[in-house]
Amino acid sequence: MIEGIELREIRTFLAVADELHFGRAAERVGLTSSRVSQTIRSMESRIGGALFDRTSRRVTLTPLGRQLRDHLQPAHDALAAALTSAREMARGVAGTIHLGMFDPPIYGGPHLTVIIRTFETRYPDCTVVVRDIPFEAQLDWLRSGAGDALVIRLPNTASDLTVGPIMTDEKRVLAITADHPLARRGQADAEDLGDLTMIDIATVPRELMNAFLPPHTPSGRLIPRHEVHRLTEVLPLVALGTAAHATVGSFAEHYRYPGVAYIPITGLPRSCSALAWLTRRTTARVIALAQTAETVLTAMRTRD
């Protein structure tokens, strides 16, 4: 171990390694630029090698700096998580939980409000703030520390996530132009998708998109796809007959659009969403929220 290097110096080094800019790193750790420079020079002196290459225009990591960053970052995150967990245990369940999800009425499910109200009644010193986070930004938002937990659509195989209670478990429906023969028939099956052009949302992770809409029909026919980048693009395309959209029942309940019909579709797997959080940032607040959600959802299932 290098004697005398403190946690604040490690945090400063990691900030510079991330920003590659001494001024921005200084703002991030609450120091002056000159103090950040002094800290880095002191670390380099004690380690015995340069961590950064500096010019008047840019800052880059040296091979030694990259190696140190790669080794220090997970250790720093684990230490920060341990200290946060200890502080929360001492304080009890208090503060704010930032809970992210894409399209809260769909992902959070019909009991989200009851879960939050029950949680805040049990833990009056803790507040839940719901944030609408785009698909493509969800894990970055969580890993950056901006959020405490997510409601994600399954499957999700990220190795650093703990998946908690299932928030929704839904049958599938097909959004299709109202004058299509399938709409008049009133139902569809997965094999019918080979005769349609289906919406493919490019910003959805491919693992999830392919689970939500398989590439092939049960008989092996390729399912044609029309790529979109935002959910708001979907229903106008469906109404025009350009494409159809395989979705979930709650989408049909929340999003009505002229010229669009929703019909049940068989042969596609049910779709679930679940509460999830970073394993290394498991906190008393998140555990309490997960336990409350499980209690409320179990009671609702029993009542239904």
Task: Please characterize this protein's 3D structure.
The protein is of the alpha/beta class. The protein contains 12 helices and 13 strands. It has 3 domains: 7-89, Arc Repressor Mutant, subunit A (Orthogonal Bundle), CATH 1.10.10.10; 92-169 and 272-303, Periplasmic binding protein-like II (D-Maltodextrin-Binding Protein, domain 2), CATH 3.40.190; 172-269, D-Maltodextrin-Binding Protein, domain 2 (3-Layer(aba) Sandwich). Helices cover 43% and strands 23% of the residues. Strands 4-3-5-13-6 form a 5-stranded mixed sheet. This is LysR family transcriptional regulator. Residues 5-62 form the HTH lysR-type domain.
Strand content: 15-25%
Q: Strands of the biggest beta sheet: in what spatial order?
A: 4-3-5-13-6
CATH level 1 class label of the largest domain: Alpha Beta
Summed up, the helix count is 12
The domain tally reads: 3
> Roughly how much helix do the residues carry, as a percent range?
40-55%
Radius of gyration equals 24 Å
Q: pLDDT under 50 segments (min length 5)?
A: none
List the helices and strands and how they pair.
Elements: H1 7-19, H2 22-29, H3 33-47, E1 52-54, E2 59-61, H4 63-91, E3 95-101, H5 104-107, H6 112-122, E4 126-132, H7 138-143, E5 149-153, E6 161-170, E7 172-177, H8 181-185, E8 188-189, E9 198-201, H9 206-212, E10 225-228, H10 234-240, E11 245-248, H11 249-254, E12 260-266, E13 271-278, H12 284-303
Parallel strand pairs: 3-4, 3-5, 8-12, 9-10
Antiparallel strand pairs: 1-2, 5-13, 6-13, 7-11, 7-12
